[in-house]
Amino acid sequence: MQKSIVIYRVCRFTQAREDSRFFISQEENAMKFYMPARLYEESDVVAKHAKEITALGKKALIVTGAHSAKKTGAQADLTEILSDAGMDYEIFDQVEENPSTRTIMQACRSADVADCDFVVGIGGGSPLDAAKAIALMLAHPNWKEEKLYQNGQDNSHLPLVCIPTTCGTGSELTGVSVLTRREQGLKGSIPYVLFPDLALVDGKYLAKAPKRLIANTATDALAHLIEAYANTGADDYTRMLVDRGLEVWAESKNFLLGLEEADDARYSRLMLASSLAGMSIAQAGTTVPHGLSYNLTLEAQIPHGIAVGYFQAGYLRECPAQMRDHLLEKAGFASPGDLDAFFRQICQVPQVSQEVLAHCLTAVMNTPAKREICPFDANEQVLRRIAGLK
Ligand SMILES: [Fe+2]
Predict the structure, then answer these.
(1) How far is the CA of 135 from the centre of ligand 1 (A)?
(2) Which one of 107, 148, 251, 360 has the fewest beta carbons within 10 angstroms of its own beta carbon?
(3) How far is the CA of 216 from the centre of ligand 1 (A)?
(4) How many Å lie between the centroid of ligand 1 and the Cα of residue 305?
(5) Ligand 1: distance of its center to the CA of 18 in Å?
(6) Cα(302) to centroid(ligand 1), Å
(7) Distance, CA 329 to ligand 1 centroid (Å)?
(8) In angstroms, what is the span from residue 227 Cα to ligand 1's centroid?
């Protein structure tokens, strides 16, 4: 039996706030906004911004998983502009789902990467998060693997480009990198703030993604929007992003239900919802549902989007009524139950044992910062209800 999993980096928001303290006032009602990535979101975005990409260095390290970067055409778009510019590159395509710290070190130790001076991540959350960590470690060649999860102060990294091929992670617009330490059964954000220099978003890369993957990642985007808003760290900037994000997200509900065919415009809108959600969590962080989700993924191998979707209805039920109603209205749901029914229609949600759910609870009980930013008292009894524990 796998032991209970404890999140080793307790809170994405905490770290981002610590790192950005130079401009955040401690006064009540203080506002903040920090999103240093240069974002371009348009069709053929890689070709259109070739000069900005190639200006980042002399040799690129392209970080991907096994398939999506190739299948979507994103890798070919990138290598074409690099070749046209006469630039060399290496490809590391061994990033697994829920990338491990070991994979990061494997990529960094390869002799081929020695002279790479910038990094391009292509794919879903796993390759993008891995690319961030690799860019960090390549800038600090003397750092050992442990440094990835020890509290760090030095966030400097090689120039970094992120190109998403799914519509949920938001990683291209956050400073977060979530990694796994497999031997210890630990998954969580590493304690560094790693925003890409360039985030290049193109809806066309979704066209070749399986419907199942689009549904899962769109659910992750919805979770980001809900958790960024139902969050004591949210301010008017965050709420503005979430309100627009939910409106844009809701436009794709019929497509997600299989009632409409997608076209280029639909894929672009799904990507836009994901971008707005990513920018939202870059400000406020994620809360209890994400904290609960990591055990579902590691113990029950449930994809991240489904794992966070699993707890959204329960989370909303605990939120103050006005906040809950606002979020539901913006997303076009009548009630938390309605949202949950939608989620179960678009995603294949497996049965989860009470034992695994109990481990989820233990993990989030050990993560006070995730609970402290909830807009209600997230005590054990409340968390049991959110987790669906009897
Ligand atoms: Fe997420």
Answers:
(1) 21
(2) 251
(3) 10
(4) 7
(5) 21
(6) 13
(7) 22
(8) 10
C-alpha of residue 352 to centroid of ligand 1, in Å:
19
Q: How far is the CA of 290 from the centre of ligand 1 (A)?
A: 6
85 alpha carbon – ligand 1 mean position (Å)? 35
Domain ranges of the chain: 38-204, 210-387
Q: How far is the CA of 371 from the centre of ligand 1 (A)?
A: 16
Architecture of domain 210-387: Up-down Bundle (1.20)
Q: Tell how far the Cα of 157 is from the centroid of ligand 1, in angstroms.
A: 23
Q: How far is the CA of 296 from the centre of ligand 1 (A)?
A: 13
Task: Give me ligand 1 centre to Cα 348, in Å.
Answer: 17
Domain range 38-204, CATH architecture: 3-Layer(aba) Sandwich (3.40)
Instruction: Compute the distance from residue 49 Cα to the ligand 1 centre, in Å.
Output: 27
Distance of CA 154 from the midpoint of ligand 1 (Å): 25
Give all strands of the β-sheet with 59-63 in edge-to-edge order: 38-41, 198-201, 160-164, 118-123, 59-63, 88-92
